[in-house]
Write a structure and sequence with these properties.
Layout: H1 8-33, H2 40-47, H3 51-57, H4 61-86, H5 94-108, H6 112-124, H7 130-150, H8 158-177, H9 186-206
Length: 208
């Protein structure tokens, strides 16, 4: 081993430690000031890394936001799935679906600016960028979870369940990011989403 070269294990530990510092700094600053009120230089300074080092982990502020929000999004989906899968609704699948999406809506609206920017970046950003790929995979996991609940309904086919899950995902996206809803409470937004999902599912029961 050459002089001055850090062993591979220690290098990886050092890289992981820097990544954690960057993530923590970004998480704190975005929570304090919103994504629009933070610069990458401020994040690098709080993480105690050079700006060039920060760019090795995320090349833009948007990527840093996606890194942070992906963790929150994943935790919200986990919580929603656990609650929904434990729910038994003799009246149908509506309430389990709402139970699944409740933590997701609360996550996106925890900091309105950050949540809106995150969803915008996932939809309109470069889908080949690794952090966006991870975020899109999480969105797919949410849709799969909704599909899994919908197929419990004997009146909804597997094919229709997949389509309805995409529709419900669109309802969540619009209801949590539209400017007209920004000043509403989480509960008001969730009630509106529930009503929209109910109306979306209703034709499948009327047709029987």
């Amino acid at each position: 081993m050459g002089r001055g070269r850090m062993p591979t294990g220690r290098r990886e530990q050092a890289k992981q430690a820097k990544r954690e510092r960057i993530m923590t700094a970004a998480r704190e600053l975005f929570a304090e000031h919103g994504v629009g009120g933070v610069t990458t230089q401020q994040i690098a300074a709080r993480a105690d890394v050079a700006i060039g080092t920060l760019y090795l982990y995320a090349s833009t502020k948007a990527e840093l936001l996606i890194m942070v929000q992906n963790e929150k999004f994943a935790a919200a989906i986990d919580a929603g799935l656990a609650t929904a899968n434990a729910a038994v609704d003799k009246q149908g699948v509506l309430e389990p679906v709402v139970a699944l999406i409740r933590p997701v809506v609360e996550c996106v609206r925890e900091h309105i600016e950050n949540g809106r920017t995150y969803l915008h970046e996932l939809v309109f950003g470069d889908p080949a960028e690794p952090y966006r790929q991870a975020g899109l995979a999480l969105a797919g996991r949410l849709e799969d979870g909704i599909t899994g609940l919908l197929v419990r309904d004997e009146h909804i086919s597997a094919a229709d369940a997949e389509t309805l899950a995409r529709v419900i995902s669109a309802i969540i996206h619009l209801s949590t990011t539209a400017t007209v809803h920004l000043h509403r409470s989480d509960e008001a937004v969730l009630t509106d989403i529930r009503d929209q999902i109910h109306a979306t599912l209703a034709p499948h029961h009327r047709a029987v």
